[in-house]
C-alpha cells in the first residue's frame, strides 16, 4: 500500500473518515517494521511518504499523527528515515520493551534500563532503554517529540535448571501463562502481585546494573518485570533527557484494583508523579547520613511485619517510600511472603 500513490490516498481518506466518525484526536502508526520481516527495502522511504500524505490530510482537521517505533538498533537502522519522520510526526514513541523474552534461550529482562556487564560478550549491549532513546536522539529525533515507552508487564521463562537462576541462565521455554493475559511467557504487573500471594517461594531480586527486578517462583519460573521502584528510574530518565514524555503498554495490566497494597494503578501513578516533577506516593525525605537509610534498596520496617520501605538517593538526601505487603503476608528477605515462609515468624 505505501508504495502506491493511489492506495495511499485511499488509506489516508479512510483514516480521516474514521477519526471524524469517532471523534478521535489523531492516529498512531504502528508498522512493525518498514523494510523488515519480508518487506521491501524501499519501505523505509515509503513509510515517510505515507506519513507526509497523512499529515497533509490531517492538518486542516487538527488531527495528531504519531508513530510507535522499534528500540532495536538493527531495526532502527534498516526501517527508519529518522529526520524524515521527525519532520512529519507530532510524537515518536519508542517501544523500549520486548528486548528479551521467551524468543531467547536464556534469561534476561524485558526492558533493562541500562546494560548488564555480561551483555557485551553476548552482543546484547544495545538492548536497553538508555541506549535506545539516546540512539534515536543521535539520529536526529527531536527530544521534544520523543516519547519513551515503558512496560506494565514482565516476560519470563521456565528454567532448565532451577539452581541456575541468574541472568543468561539456560531456559526450557516460555514461563507459565497468567490468568488474565493468558499468554505463555508474559505476566501483567497485576498478575505478578497475585503470584506473590500464591507461592511461598516467590523471591524478588533487584539488579542494580539494569535498575530493575526479576522474580523466581514455583521452583522453575523466572520473570523480569517492572515495579514502582524500576518505573521510577525509567521515568526519571525521561525527565533527565528532557523528552516529550512517556507511554505504557498497557494500562489494563497495572494493579487497577489495588491488590498490591500500593493503591490503584501504582505504575501509572508513579510515572505521572515523576514526570510532573512530584514525588511518588507515600514519600518522606530525610537528610543523609542518619535516619532509616544507609544504602539504596528495600528494607523491612520491623520483624514479622507487612510494612517495608524503599530508600532512593536524591541529591545528598534520601527519598523514602513507605510500602506494605498485601493482607496476610509479611515482608521477608526482599519479598512479600506468607508468614509461615519465615522460620522466625511461624507460630
TrEMBL record:
Domain GH18: 1-278
Reaction(s) this enzyme catalyzes, per UniProt: Random endo-hydrolysis of N-acetyl-beta-D-glucosaminide (1->4)-beta-linkages in chitin and chitodextrins
GO-annotated molecular function: chitin binding; endochitinase activity
GO cellular component: extracellular region
Key words, A-Z: Carbohydrate metabolism, Chitin degradation, Chitin-binding, Disulfide bond, Glycosidase, Hydrolase, Polysaccharide degradation, Signal
InterPro entries, alphabetized: Chitin-bd_dom, Chitin-bd_dom_sf, Chitinase_II/V-like_cat, Chitinase_insertion_sf, GH, Glyco_hydro18_cat, Glyco_hydro_18_chit_AS, Glycosyl_Hydrlase_18
Domain Chitin-binding type-2: 290-347
Family matches, as Gene3D superfamilies: 3.10.50.10, Glycosidases
Highest rank taxon of the organism: Eukaryota
Pfam families per record: Glyco_hydro_18 (PF00704)
EC number: 3.2.1.14
Enzyme's top EC category: hydrolase
Biological processes per GO annotation: chitin catabolic process; polysaccharide catabolic process
Family of this protein: Belongs to the glycosyl hydrolase 18 family. Chitinase class II subfamily.
Name of this protein: chitinase
